[in-house]
Amino acid sequence: MTICFNPQNKLRFENTLAKYEIKASALLPTLWLAQEQFEFLTPEVMDYVAQLLEMPPAHVYEAVTFYIMYKKRDMGKFCLQVCNNITCSMMGSEDLIRLIKKELHIGLNEVTEDKMFSLVPVQCLGSCDTAPVVQVNDDYCENLNPEKLRELIIKLRAGIVLEGPGIPCQ
Ligand code: FES
Fold first, then answer.
1. Range(s) of the domain holding residue 115
2. Do both 62 and 142 map to the same domain?
3. Is residue 73, in this structure, part of any structural domain at all?
4. Distance from the CA of 132 to the center of ligand 1, in angstroms?
5. 91, 133, 141: residue to mutate for ligand 1 pocket, most atoms within 8 A of CB
6. Residues 6+ apart with CB under 8 A from 150
């Protein structure tokens, strides 16, 4: 399969590029765009980005490896990123991790067999005042407890779309 931005994303890429004096400076937003279209960043996708930005592929690999928000493999439809830093931990994030493991039969950094969910422990999501926090793809679900999280998983399975940061969990 040829890796290539679709026409809409080509336009978005051109608009992004126009904001920077140096092509390489557009690396992070271009990777984000690539992840949006291709779901995760395979070596082929990273090579494509390197080619677009006229930079060595190794520089792209380094950035993708460094930043946790870039997916290197298929993490399923809903990536549940559970903050287990100090505040969330004190507010019960370990219980959330235990619940996900039990309900979905997966361990840390694993994906369910049906490719619906994955579980990823992360460091502080910057929302300590609403701990414990789970980031579901791009949305924050805040002030969680195991019961709310169980309900959230049921909603996600049923295809109920998150309508905004934290909305299903408040
Ligand atoms: S410790 Fe979890 S959001 Fe800061």
1. 78-169
2. no
3. no
4. 7
5. 133
6. 99, 103
Asked if residue 1 is part of any domain, the answer here is no
Ligand 1 atom showing the smallest separation from residue 125 Cα: 3
Mutate to test the pocket of ligand 1, among 68, 83, 95 (most ligand atoms within 8 A of CB): 83
Cα torsion through 126, 76, 161, 123, rounded to 10: -10
Own/partner pairs, 42-45, CB within 8 angstroms, 24+ separation: 44/3, 45/3
Atom of ligand 1 nearest to the CA of 83: 2
**Are residues 57 and 95 located together in one domain of the fold?**
no
Q: What is the pLDDT of residues 112-164, one digit of tens each?
A: 999 999 999 999 999 999 999 999 988 999 999 999 999 999 999 998 766 55
- Alpha-carbon distance of 128 to 144, in angstroms, equals 12
Q: Looking at ligand 1, which atom is closest to the CA of residue 124?
A: 4
Q: What is the pTM of this model?
A: 0.82
pLDDT in tens, 51-110: 999 999 999 999 999 998 899 999 999 999 999 999 999 999 999 999 999 999 999 999
